[in-house]
Amino acid sequence: MLPLQLAISNRYKRLANPVAETHKVFRALQACGVFPISAGELSVAFVTDTLIRQVHQDFMGIPTVTDVITFPADVAMGSAGEIIVSVDQARSRADEWSVSFSHELSLYLVHGWLHLAGYDDRTRADQLAMRRAEEQAFGVLDQACAGNHFQLNGAD
Q1: In a domain, 154, yes or no
Q2: In a domain, 59, yes or no
Q3: Of 100, 128, 131, 146, which has the most beta carbons under 10 Å away?
Q4: Could you tell me where the DSSP H helices lie in 33-123?
């Protein structure tokens, strides 16, 4: 297994210490060996809709909110990639789809990891392959008891 270092930034005030659970999610995905990514530092940022909208505009020219943005690895720089996750989107979509907040947030982490592993979702066929890989990845997380413990603090 290639070395992977995680750099986690929680820029969402109400997200209760996501570091340990994020480590569990990515260590389980790495250990399974099914979805390999580059060695190096994997940066993860938990942000608001406002911040992810700005990143989406600045780097992709799209002035809308999205759930997760993934930047590819730069092996020469020692980067395994970067995943930026909107906690606001996880909150609202979890309610909308009647799933737990933790599951939805884990889905965004898995989705970002899969992009780093070479999956895409631009065409219908790619989207179907991504959904199958997400389901397989959640099987890995279930086996590792990972991805079920993300929590929010306090009231709005």
Answers
A1: no
A2: yes
A3: 146
A4: 49-60, 87-97, 101-116
